[in-house]
Amino acid sequence: MSETTGLRDRARRAMRAEVAVVALELFAEKGFDGATVDDIARAAGMSRTSFFRYFPTKEDVVLGHLDDLGQTIARALADRPEAEDPWDALRSAFRTAYANSKNAPGPALGRMLLDTPSLKARHQEKQSRWQDLLIPEIAVRLGVPDDPRDPRPRALAAAALGCLDAAFQAWTATGGEASTSTFIDRAFDVVATRR
């Protein structure tokens, strides 16, 4: 990567972060549905067209960081010991990714995500992409790396993401009183005891 490209990427990330801060302030003031893209663009000192250069949708202002988080979880899973049980490796990967994430949503943002249908739908879309990122590593761990007919890798990824959703909802409901890892463990434990 050239120095110019690196500088451009950093400037783009900085602008995205700045617009996100402005948008989150507006969402706190007006609610997600009450703040329009035009409101966000105006408050950020840019045009509507410029806004869409940084974010494909209004929902991505809130959820854009989840693309990176999905990649982080996939890397954390790949870094787990090869002989580790796939379910335990998934649990550890989620715990590691959330513990190390500077972008994981806080309880207030979590509440908005859970209470806003369009955000919830976009979140589901992103988690579907996470599932696709996790399946190849799970398949390798199950000894079926090139067999798309085997449902087990997809089932494990879907179950793990279901546990993550349950953990996130419980964590949000408590206002973030305990670490996300505590709730991740509780959710994964209940499924592990049923295997």
From TrEMBL:
Keyword Chloroplast part of the UniProt annotation: no
One Pfam entry name: TetR_N
Top-level taxonomic group: Bacteria
The entry's DNA-binding region: 36-55
Coiled coil: none
Residue stretches making up the HTH tetR-type domain: 13-73
GO MF term list: DNA-binding transcription factor activity; transcription cis-regulatory region binding
Database matches in InterPro entries: Homeodomain-like_sf, HTH-type_TetR-like_transc_reg, HTH_TetR, MftR_C
Keyword annotations of the record: DNA-binding, Transcription, Transcription regulation
UniProt entry tagged with the keyword Transcription: yes
Protein name: TetR/AcrR family transcriptional regulator
Top-level taxonomy: Bacteria, Bacillati, Actinomycetota, Actinomycetes, Pseudonocardiales
